[in-house]
Amino acid sequence: MERETLDVDVLIVGAGPAGLSAALRLAQLRKAAGEALSIAVLEKAREAGAHMLSGAVLDPSSLRDLVPDFEARGAPLATPVREDRVYFLTPNGKLRFPFTPPPLTNHGHYIISLNKFVKWLAVLVESEGIDLFTGFAGADLLMDGERILGVRSGDRGVGKHGERKASFESGVDIHAKVTIFADGVRGNLTKELMRRLELADADHPQLFAIGIKELWEVPADRVAAGTVIHTMGYPMRVEEFGGGFIYAMPEGRLSVGFVAGLDYQDPIFDPHVAFNHFKRHPLVRGLLEGGQMVRYGAKALPEGGWYAIPRCYADGALIVGDAAGFMNSMRLKGIHLAMRSGMLAAETAFEAIRAGDTSTARLHQFETKVDEGPIRRELYPVRNVHQAFEYGLLAGLAYSAFSLVTGGWWFRPMRAQPGHARMKTLAEFYGRSGRAVPGEATNAIKPDRRLTFDKLTNVHYSGTRHEEDQPVHLLVHTDVCHSICTEEYGNPCQRFCPASVYEMVAADGGGKRLQINASNCVHCKTCDIMDPYQVITWVPPEGGGGPQYDGM
Amino acid sequence: MILVIAEQRDGKLNRASWETIAAAQQLASGQPIAVVLPGSGVGSVATELSAAQVKEIVTIDHAALEPYTPDGYTAALQPAIEQLSPTMVLLPHTYQTRDFAPTLAARMDRALITDVTAIKNVGGDAAFVRPMYQGKLAADVVPLGPGPHFITFQIGAFRADQAAKGSAAAPVRPLNISVDAAAIREKPDAPFQEVRQAVDLSQAERIVAVGRGIKGQEHLPLAQQLADALGAELAASRPICDSGWLPMERQIGSSGQTVAPKLYLALGISGAIQHVVGMKGSRTIVAINKDADAPIFEVADYGIAGDLFEMVPAIVAELRK
């Protein structure tokens, strides 16, 4: 089949903070050197920023280096952090930490909407004359042996059963000297690249968490703008990793969210249920009551830290941002590291292209830059922290304190197993009968539709839309679902998915079958990560589909 | 003066134009209303529109306006609006309007308020109510800056049958506008219908909609009987269409059609917000659902908490008497 092709010097897959920082840095280097360099950015969302979800508190260190005059250029950083509060929650009470643990001190940082921030970055990038192809997902890697030639964008106008509709347009092959993969947490292309080139270290798999967030509008006098609240404890049990956050912006806008480690053992656990319990806690309920939920979203995040970062360079390719796992789980921050990694990748790629050598050996310089710069300085001292939480909350907290003193030392790099492998079967977790008796935290509540919502209602507020007539973009080997998974785990996909994509429904002729409501998908990637049999593969739906995270 | 831009295709008037005339009449308070009708060979549509209680119907009849192109419409409407110099330009929020109105407003550097559902009076100024956040909030928007302001009205927000008719036919006046056909960059193909024999539920006066409560495809004839007895169209919530029990074009809701019939009868529909946003504008909503706590009862005018398999045959029997 004839395909259109496009040749560029650098292709960036993903217009998030990492990808756009890479693009902007390349534009700066191009200008300074007075050289021609063609740059293209692919983004699956209809517009830049639409799929961006984060808490978010921004450490502006990388931004300051990338756009020194960011204030004059109108960066949307409306809310400097004024106060940090950390609580340990019990079912009805709270215990405030007498001091804020150093990693959670946010003095000098800003509460931002990542959606607005990325939109702003996209405008800067486009004003440098860089082509931002929004609405185009990277669907396949183009490789020649071990060399990455570029990326093929997804076809459009394909019907439910794979047939070509009147609107069919085939994807475009984009060839680049260097492809920078910034496709986000569990990016579909990075996942494939890591598999083909064996870039990950089996002893230190990436560990993930899922973040669920709502944007609320409450009476403006509830909580002062600039207040940052983090919680630990309830509703998570001691062996589970997770906690809540509340960030106050001006005019009574609150970011309210909950992060749950995707390494829980209880197959009945449901992160969305935990989020609802968190909102019903007196501390949170008191802030939200009488307000309105206006937006919802969910996204996985890489929590594994330093040791979980794969090899981020290959022949003609670099991996940056969340796709690589540049995130500090102890500070709950990754935007500045994503930006920094994008900037360093841009510098590496630019120098390599000038030297006419974009081989693995040359692009290895990216790792050197990471090792010699602020990324390692920040991540290495907390290299074992998340892994320590595998031993429970108390062990994790104890080790966190210990690492602050010792600079993260432990006898050896703490190993971990992938999160999905830690999930226990119903029989293992609930005893021989295998009958799940949910604890208070996992006990689904009936949403009151004011403070708490069911997933489907929440999905509506994510603004998610997909072309309806297209193939299902969640590839599942459904043979295991109604048989072995129902018996062993009770179909946990119905619970870990925060958007009601997976549903076991009555099958014709008795029994149950898996129904995939693909158009509810908010692109969080949790299913691809957490499915205990690893039979779910997330691939990008037709470009432009997905959530619309305005203001998130 | 208030200007309404009517929409026609192949000599057939889009019903939503009457809704916009109704909105204009509510807004007018003494101001004259003129209706502009662009197209080619629009004489009979102009006659149809002249029944409205308005000052005049202004036609822009030009070969370059057939078929519709955003360039052609923008090129024709800008000089027409400048010539008529209205205070406001009102349009139905159709796909066609969405295509050219932003260009037109931007070209003239005037304010555009889209998808308006109601008109309010805020301190003497007309404020336009439009949904935000998927309908969770409604914003009252007052246009600022020099006129004319462009306003588009959501389909079903005003009722076509409430557009006042004049005692005598309004005069029809052709406006001579030259459109440079060579400046039209778009070359549209013939419109294609993705789904053959598509039903346009937005035109239905009565709808019987089924949801998961119908349990199986084999029970659909029961709902069809009720629809037949009422002279209604059959529609469904998402799970029914997802299962392939009814074609996708009969799906009501955020990923299907938005409807506002006189009667909406919901059978076994829980009332997920995705469905409700597609039917909450219905004049009378009747819901039958087993679960008395189902959210559908929050929007229903009449609710029956009961088994549809008992209720529906009884209603059908009663209707057939």
In short:
The complex is a heterodimer of chains A (552) and B (321). Chain A is of the alpha+beta class.
Q: How many domains is the backbone of chain B divided into?
A: 2
Rounded to an integer in angstroms, the radius of gyration calculated over CA atoms of chain B is 22 Å
Tell me the Rg of chain A in angstroms.
23 Å
The appropriate CATH architecture of the domain at 5-68 and 116-204 and 306-382 in chain A is 3-Layer(bba) Sandwich
What is the fold named in CATH at topology level of the largest domain in chain B? Rossmann fold
Compute the separation of the termini of chain A in Å. Answer: 41 Å
Walk me through what this model shows.
The complex is a heterodimer of chains A (552) and B (321). By secondary structure, chain A is an alpha+beta fold. Chain A contains 18 helices and 24 strands. In chain A, strands 1, 2, 8, 9, 10, 13, 19 and 20 form an eight-stranded mixed sheet that branches. In chain A, strands 6-5-15-16-17-14-18 form a seven-stranded mixed sheet. In chain A, β5 and β6 (94-96) form a beta hairpin. In chain A, α1 packs parallel to α3, α1 packs parallel to α7 (335-355) and α7 crosses α9. The longest helix of chain A is centred in the middle third of the chain and has 21 residues, at 335-355. The model of chain A has no long low-confidence stretch (mean pLDDT 92). Chain B is α/β, with parallel strands linked by helices and 321 residues long. Chain B has two domains: 2-183, HUPs (Rossmann fold, 3-Layer(aba) Sandwich); 201-320, Rossmann fold. Chain B contains nine helices and 17 strands. In chain B, β15, α7 (273-276) and β16 form a beta-alpha-beta unit. The longest helix of chain B has 15 residues, at 70-84. Chain B is elongated. The termini of chain B are far apart. Chain A binds chain B through residues 165-166, 292-295, 449, 456-457, 459-461, 463, 465, 468-469, 515, 517, 519, 550, and chain B through 133-134, 136-137, 192, 194, 242, 248, 254-255, 272-274, 277, 295.
